[in-house]
């Protein structure tokens, strides 16, 4: 039997490993994830806190033909990602500024560099971005929506729910990639999933087993040191 401190240390190590090992995987194996596992992940994730327990999340889990129909609807729409209209909500500012501009650039250059795409190879960048819309070949693609009548607080709650999904997936040896790229294509997604007008498409998420043979999955992002963003006050 472990003593109390040993149990605490072990529990902390398990939780921290799930959090730290979570990352945006951009190449998946075709191995299917069974519905029981998906249900277990979503059930655990739904323990996320929400104001007055409103639980504002709604999830559409897609596989096979339906997932392919979503991909086809977007890729055949003729709407390039850089021209897509963010008319439901704005994810990024109109003008990036520091320190966020440098972080964004480092992320983009690092990812494209890992897969051998140069800074001026725009067509290759677009092709890589379009892989969002096939969920990076993951066998499971999820679309998340929220009632448009809710306010910003529910969107904060939603973020905690999404994080719970990604961490719970790691506990089962799975990986994910959260994908805001789906949001401006809500007109293409709605008819496929019969999403009602009162629901805003928040994002998508790929779920599956990592293909560790792909160079894009070797890319790792860094994090700013605590000194850059934490203030301790007594």
TrEMBL record:
Domain Nitroreductase: 20-209
Highest taxon listed in the record's lineage: Bacteria
Gene3D superfamilies: NADH Oxidase
Cofactor(s) recorded in Swiss-Prot or TrEMBL: FMN
Pfam families: Nitroreductase
Assigned keywords, A-Z: Flavoprotein, FMN, Oxidoreductase
Family affiliation: Belongs to the nitroreductase family.
Protein's name according to its UniProt entry: Nitroreductase
Organism for this UniProt entry: Mesorhizobium dulcispinae
UniProt lineage: Bacteria, Pseudomonadati, Pseudomonadota, Alphaproteobacteria, Hyphomicrobiales
């Amino acid at each position: 039997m472990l003593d109390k401190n040993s149990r605490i240390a072990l529990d902390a190590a398990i939780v921290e490993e799930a959090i730290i090992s979570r990352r945006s995987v951009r190449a998946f194996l075709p191995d299917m994830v069974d519905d029981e596992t998906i249900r277990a992940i979503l059930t655990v994730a739904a323990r996320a806190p929400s104001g007055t327990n409103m639980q504002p999340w709604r999830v559409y889990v897609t596989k096979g033909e339906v997932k392919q129909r979503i991909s086809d609807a977007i890729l055949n729409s003729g709407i390039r990602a850089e021209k897509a209209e963010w008319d439901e909500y704005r994810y990024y500012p109109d003008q990036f500024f520091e320190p966020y501009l440098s972080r964004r650039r480092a992320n983009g250059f690092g990812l494209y560099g890992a897969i051998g795409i140069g800074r001026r190879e725009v067509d290759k960048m677009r092709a890589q971005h379009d892989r969002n819309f096939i969920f990076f070949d993951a066998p499971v693609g999820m679309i998340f929506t929220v009632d448009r009548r809710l306010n910003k607080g529910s969107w904060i709650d939603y973020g905690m729910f999404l994080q719970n999904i990604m961490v719970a997936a790691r506990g089962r040896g799975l990986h994910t990639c959260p994908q805001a790229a789906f949001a401006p294509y809500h007109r293409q997604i709605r008819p496929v999933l019969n999403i009602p007008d009162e629901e805003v498409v928040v994002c998508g998420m790929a779920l599956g087993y990592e293909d560790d043979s792909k160079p894009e999955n070797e890319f790792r992002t860094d994090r700013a040191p605590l000194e850059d963003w934490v203030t301790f006050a007594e």
